[in-house]
Amino acid sequence: MVRAAQTTEDLRRSNLSAVLRQVHFSGPISRTDLTARLGLNRSTIGALTSELVDAGLVTEQAQAGGGRTGRPSLLVRPESRRVHTLAVAIGVDRITAARVGLGGVVLDRRDTGTSREEYSLESVVGTVRAFARSLRAAAPSEAVHVGTGVAFCGIVHGEHGEVCFGPNIGWASEPLGKALADSLAEVYGRHRPVSVGNDADLGALAEHARGAATGCDDVIYLHGDVGIGAGIIVGGTLLAGTDGFGGEVGHMAVRMEGGKQCGCGARGCWETEIGEYALLKAAGREGVGREAVESVVLAARLGDTDAQQALLRVGDWLGFGVANLVNIFNPQMIIMGGMLRGVYLGAATHVRGRLRTATLATHRESVRLRTPVLEDDAPLIGAAELAFARLLADPLEAAR
Amino acid sequence: MVRAAQTTEDLRRSNLSAVLRQVHFSGPISRTDLTARLGLNRSTIGALTSELVDAGLVTEQAQAGGGRTGRPSLLVRPESRRVHTLAVAIGVDRITAARVGLGGVVLDRRDTGTSREEYSLESVVGTVRAFARSLRAAAPSEAVHVGTGVAFCGIVHGEHGEVCFGPNIGWASEPLGKALADSLAEVYGRHRPVSVGNDADLGALAEHARGAATGCDDVIYLHGDVGIGAGIIVGGTLLAGTDGFGGEVGHMAVRMEGGKQCGCGARGCWETEIGEYALLKAAGREGVGREAVESVVLAARLGDTDAQQALLRVGDWLGFGVANLVNIFNPQMIIMGGMLRGVYLGAATHVRGRLRTATLATHRESVRLRTPVLEDDAPLIGAAELAFARLLADPLEAAR
């Protein structure tokens, strides 16, 4: 309950952080606007931006004259091409790596499809290392790598991914973060922090920072593939839970009796009714993966009644669980990501119908249902934000 | 995403706030311990405590000699008998008011049973005014009232209780906060802020500050009477939701089909299976209210098989919903308050059995189930904390 006390050094650090966050999240901004937004005086802002310029994190330049008289306010820009992170997304079917510059710009990217049966720690680390090497070779010589962020399709223990469980890719307990940190040290010539997060959590962070939920502080990002997870932002902060395992909404039970067996060992979990297997089985399809899901959504749109029935059935259960989340969290927005995007778009009327009958009127009025603006890149962009977090919290220390 | 920048005036205010919070939540504490806990130097702490002494919020006195040599560190105490709030709890069956001193001490109290059929805004305001007048008459002449906090058994719109909905006491939409503020101004001779919160939310705050969940930053406090609500603390902060209506877990649907009609208009809500009516009906009892519930719990303990069956049935559904909350929130603790306390104590094995089969192993290991240390006073103590919040955030301004 007790807030930590503060020193003048904390104050300087927090103000440098506030300025860099503005530049990172809002893009190029004038000193005058920084002064107004942060409520600090002009000379303080000038001193802070000068320090950030000296650290190579931002540049300042005169603005093109907008017809106003007097000396124009300097424009402060993030050093996007110079300061960057390596963002990695390890999905059930795909591995992606990108160089993402300060300001959230994807500068360059590599990706490959994978088979979930052939996943091993070695193969994943090898793929990421090869991508990192290739991205580094293509980067300009002055580029500075400030860290790596990883979005992982499973449960992540520890902020550096000390132990990762990936039931849907057959991982029992793998030291992903350490293995990646060691392997990437070879690429970059020195050890740099590797931060690992759950893909739904990072999708939520990304949509909150730069996507559908900009300005919304109470947001649930649902990510679906074989399993269903959520990144839940409460009052602007990601819901972590006491171990960092919060948001396992796929294991919300929706049936007391007669539920299907779930991979977690329980019966009747939500993901047994709305996950990839549930949709494909309801549609009478063979195969797995996002492509199989998309083909059901497409078939339904083209008039295939089996596919339509499957989509409506899954949409009904999607609405059932979403209604629960609305009543529990009173969110401003729920975003349907991964395979749920297609299910939602194909069964939106059904989902909304369930919400109309099963949510409290007060809660229903406030909530908007959306799909991710960053589409399938939301976890990747969130991984970049994870890697930028240290720099943004303490710009001069982390830039060293 | 952007943190506000800070000035030296913010810094002083936040340090005064940090010191007063320590004294309020930890009780009497020496200057030396304040120095250590807050990481500030001795002279800064001395200056801050002197300001708080001048404002009449704390006293400083030499400690009784502990056998150590040298000048003993001054002991800083909250001015509990002088600085106080009026805390009010408006429950379904009972209205309570108390004078609660800085440091969370209940100095004096009044209460009365009520019938939920006879509730009206006028009768509630009249009762609270009479209690406030009586408490004031009994208070020492130097006592300073710094505000009123109210725990209300329903949905509260606005931090000052601009509109309150109490479906379980027949309130559609009442301006409780304004009516109380006007009425109490007559008692205290001037307008003082009245803050109103949901009783489950305030129970959570109280158990977090001074009860079972001290030191736990991820806690769910469940409150049961006719309805079921939750106060949910995520990372140390109360989950509000976008309108302040978060935590309506009683309206989590637990049946897709065949659910009972709920007061909210939907079917199959959790509270239709575990609320007061569900228990009394399952036990074949007439009557309503906490006493009727307690008589079922007692009968079960004495061997009445109908009462036992009813308790186990409700306990099973209690475990079903609690398991969902464990998977969604990964909390460190869940506290069963109101009528759920008796249900949980009478069916603990059943509740825990359901948790064993329906929660993720990682989540199950971390969660503890508890009953409120503050017992039925949790919402009342939370109401006092609500009223102290302004003073704690800005001690000198609010003490004026």
Automatic annotation (TrEMBL), chains A, B:
SUPFAM superfamilies: Actin-like ATPase domain, Winged helix' DNA-binding domain. Pfam families: MarR_2, ROK. InterPro entries: ATPase_NBD (IPR043129), HTH_MarR-typ (IPR000835), ROK (IPR000600), WH-like_DNA-bd_sf (IPR036388), WH_DNA-bd_sf (IPR036390). Residues 18-68 form the HTH marR-type domain. Belongs to the ROK (NagC/XylR) family. This is ROK family transcriptional regulator.
